Amino acid sequence: MSTEMHDKVSTGLTGFDQVIDKLRLGDNVVWQVDSVLHYASMVEPFVTQAKLEHRKLVYVRFGSHEPILEESPDIEVVTLDAQKGFESFAAAVHLLIEREGRRTFYVFDCLTELLEYWYSDAMIGNFFNVSCPYLYELDTIAYFSIIRNAHTYATIAGIRETTQLLLDLYQLGDHMYVHPLKVWNRYSPSMFFPHLIQGQEAVSITASAQAAELFSAIHRGVERLDFWDVTVNKAREALTLEPERQSEAKGLLMSLLVGPASRMLELCERFFTLEDLLAIASREVGTGLIGGKSIGMLLARKILEREGQDRIAPYLEPHDSYYIGADVFYTYMVQNGWWKLRAKQRTQEGYFTLAPELQEKMKQGKFSESIRRRFMQLLEYFGQSPIIVRSSSLLEDNFGNAFAGKYESVFCVNQGTPEERYEAFVQAVRTVYASMMNEDALAYRLNRGLREKDEQMALLVQRVSGDHYRDAYFPHIAGVGNSSNLYVWEPGVDMEAGMLRLVFGLGTRAVDRTVGDYVKIVTLDNPLRPSPMDAEDLRKFSQRGVDVLSLKDNAPASPKADDVLTYDLKTDRALFASVDKATADRLRELGYKDRPVPYIINFHRLLKHTEFPGVMKDMLALLSSVYEYPVDIEFTANFTRDNQFKVNVLQCRPLQTRGLGQPVELPELGEGETCLFSAKGSFMGGNVRLPVDYAVYIQPRAYLERTEQGKYAVARQIGKINQALRGKNALLIGPGRWGTTMPSLGVPVHFSELCHVSAICEVASEEAGFTPELSYGSHFFQDLVETGIFYAAIFDGRPGVEFHPEYILGRENQLSAVLPGSEKFADVIHIARTDGMELYSDIVTQTLLCR
């Protein structure tokens, strides 16, 4: 027998085998039917024949309809849960196909059943398009079915393009007809006529009169909306129905837009109306969940509008955001042919190794024509207003996982021709999608046990808050607000009053540790209270650059603050900055008469003479009260000529903190007894008594003497030590800022390179010029809080501060024992075994001690 004949397989119907020249190994067979019972009638002879030939048979069960096949020792039944979502379901099918191997025969439940779980025709098409090629590759034969007139033409077209056989099955009266629509790689003169199935025979309907009679009796339907749109339209119709029907529609939309049961869902159910959800759906591009960042922003605004009433609601700036549904991300992956690579990347072996390849591909993919049209409509709506494309993944900004700064946000200054603006927007979307494969994001998901979680990426598209000032666009102020101030530097600070991390201009400086620049830390119990840096040198530790969007250059820019403050800001510039008289006098004495007036951005008038700090304090307190949890927000504010203002809440998420802990009794140091360090205030992490197994100390002078490349090498060594000491209580002590991007200011580690230590200290070293930055509220500090890493800033030389590095330098350096082969770093990195050493902190007395 020839190989060709050997590869032919019977449908179990002799006459139909003759019509289509039998099945071939590799064929996917899709039956378009009016009912699942009709599909079952075609499955039965196929399975009977396969059993006679001792084929390996697998029945994939996921639907709510009656089983297509009865239980049998000859058939393996695999039940999968489609409710877990597209990615989990598709991955489970992929693993099943991989496990069963070559030449396995499959029968799948009706694919239309997936609408019950996914509410999206597009996602059913995506599932078929990623599963069908793999089945073909392994020489399997698989039977599928879809219900006629239940799907869009686009979905059917996608299935037709991918499958090997697409067969229409009709029942008229007592007769069953099969009409082949596609039979790949074979042909006969009568193949594409309808055929009457009579027992084992298949009689071709070739006469025009018979064919016309048959087809005129078949209801083919009209072009259908995507099932998603049908569902939203039904929900809109429910607005006129009784409350019970409205409640059902609201619950369904909640599950489609917000997600499964969670604390966030409970809050959304409490504050969102059916009208609110329909408004969200009307501004969604594509289908699927809108993600954590979008939900957090919308929920916070709803709480403030409803519960804030006259106190807060009048101060809120309106928003008109758009949402790109999570299903668009999957469609992007599938239609560009990356699904198989994505599946391999999700495995333990490929998790990090395949991410760079996938990331590079994701920066260059194409979108379907329907999504391109919706993107263009979105851009037409915003016109030439600057917009920002922000990640809004399913796991983001929820209770337990903040993902602070792990994924990209991309500004689109949005200037130029429609074509140029479109291309810039699409590239921004690609960039955010690709950021899912960032090493920090991957490490974060891995460390938090989320590697196998379904991490879909929705997007939030926001109009940038602000106005035109000359050729720059920016808000007057922006920042981060926390309802609980976990970083307290003196006993009088009320932790529960909250704090702000405030900047002039765009808020990028508020969430990132900006090189060579500082932000304003505001304690909301006393907004004018100076921070430790303010007290030392107000100008040195103030903001000197302003992040803006340059309309002329169509790109982000960071001009000097003194230059920007000369613009007409359409409000009182004294709200944000005071003239630096000392510097002005010095410049005048030196003869620099044409220099811009020097300013110090201190927000003194803003904090003393406006309602702004009081409104922010009440806003944070209200959100925290409703959340029953500390919260973290990102915001902007814009002022009018008469110094009135509006606040735009861009983001809100639970502040991931472990709380203060129980009060700690600190030991007294005996006569002549020394310690590693002690201080008043300047720590974060609550009350602790932490045993320290290892202290890792970066020696400032030796570090300073290294080249820039050498400093980066030290940072990479810290990452290896972080892994080597995992499971131990390690204290990490270094000069200046941990996590800086500029080695001259500290050690440029990624957070994933210190995520397993128990505590970190940033030491001010005057001799080396290193200074900690009070960066509470930045993404780096969000990571510390969320991971439960204790933080302390040691301002060596200040009154009340003791720091004795010899306490650990006097002990043997364990570097080579902890990390063999790292001896060349021994002059910079000193690791001491510190069995018996403990770190103590007490919030009430603001006392810090390590001995």
From TrEMBL:
Pfam families from the UniProt entry: PPDK_N
Pyruvate phosphate dikinase AMP/ATP-binding domain sequence ranges: 289-659
Name used for this protein in its record: PEP/pyruvate-binding domain-containing protein
Organism: Paenibacillus filicis
Source lineage: Bacteria, Bacillati, Bacillota, Bacilli, Bacillales
